[in-house]
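Lecture notes, structural biology module. Today: joint structure prediction for complexes of two components.
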Amino acid sequence: MPRPFDPGCCQEPFLSLAGEYPEADVYPPDQFRVEWGPVFHRGRLDGSARVLVIGQDPAQHETIVRRILVGEAGRRVQGFLAKLGITRSHVLVNTFLYSVYGSVKARTRREPRLVAYRNRWLDALLVGTNVEAVLSLGTAADEAWQLWKATPAGQASSLVHATVTHPTQPESSSRGDKVKLAAATQKLLQNWNAGLQVLSPGLAHPDASLPLVLYGSTWAEGDRLPVPSIDFPAGLPEWMREQDGWAKRAGKDDLGKRRNITITVPKGVLP
Amino acid sequence: MPRPFDPGCCQEPFLSLAGEYPEADVYPPDQFRVEWGPVFHRGRLDGSARVLVIGQDPAQHETIVRRILVGEAGRRVQGFLAKLGITRSHVLVNTFLYSVYGSVKARTRREPRLVAYRNRWLDALLVGTNVEAVLSLGTAADEAWQLWKATPAGQASSLVHATVTHPTQPESSSRGDKVKLAAATQKLLQNWNAGLQVLSPGLAHPDASLPLVLYGSTWAEGDRLPVPSIDFPAGLPEWMREQDGWAKRAGKDDLGKRRNITITVPKGVLP
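The predicted structure, tokenised, for the full assembly:
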């Protein structure tokens, strides 16, 4: 059975971009896990993307897969894109190349070299391409968009754009409280409905033309969808796309957690 | 500072090969760690390779990097290639796509679909290409070569070929006995000298023309060389290329060890 995959950064300008990334002089190691290397993107780099998604930063699953938004947040984004009729013509980049450690200082967020490198990616993906709509996930991603919009290329662009609540904000804000989680989820879905209604009219060439079906007040069947095989590098096993939790930062203390990632093949995969 | 990398399987026929690999029906899970996915190659797939190396199977470091021969065995191979004047014009594939678990049955080794898929890679790398010399590492890799040589394309080929002792055979055969290790290392280096003397005259277009300097009776400075940055995927951190030991199969029992790989950033990398 053929298994389609993403060959990654193998054409210009992405070939150069993936070899010229900012390192610890731009991303301070007290704010970013630079030791694990940058993670650049997910999705189409061949010019076929119709929607660009701007996320925040990669976590441990992304560090192993070397693609962004491959966990639960990514599956929720795939559900959102599917409602727009996008099943493969998407491309995703993050605000930050490296996983955030603790929090990011305002001065770092606006570091000119950090912003300039990200804007090179946004130029490559948005100027003279097929992209028709841009979605930012959360406030940092919104700022990334605004900083690009302030450039000459951004000012000249008339792409439709929406910022929505980050896909896993309900979990991070409710900290295990089920009542708070349900309320935050309902609020997120309302917010995402507003985003859909902004982006849908601007999307002239989706992969499939569908009537727009909004979210309800809780996650429903089909609202979370697998990250497509075509978004993963060649040869990665299926279980890496199916559920989160197979990569953990395990260690005795903060330093131990920072230095380690343990990958565990889920139960049921082995004979 | 630009960091060159290997974009991987992004051109035909490798694009198709990396999406059509044999799975558990061809590689029995009692003999191979199929649960971690296949690892295909290392080095040039753009037609510039002058030497093909056939290795055996990927281990845990290779599983994370998704390139073969990236650990100690790979560094010894780089030293061997450097003696032939090859610093970048190499390509490496393995006898087996998956990591061997226990031992491989003779019937599995000769499974027609396993051999046919590998021969598709060898055809792609050897027929009508720039490759001038082929090196097999160990007996399984020698058999892989012989099975290709028995095909019509192999019979028509006049490439120079040598089989040498597997690079880490001294460690695996001596099991911690230093006297045995020294003797096995000396024997390996003699064997590798014979391989160099077979391949060197057949290599008309090395990256650098150098007088052939043979190995001594122990590993010397420069006999082990780093795997080049250009052989790694984009964005992987430097420490993954420097030393072995950052990936371990840790677990309480055999199943635990099979299910887990723990990656640890080496000391001194973090601030």
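Point to remember: The longest helix of chain A spans residues 178-199.
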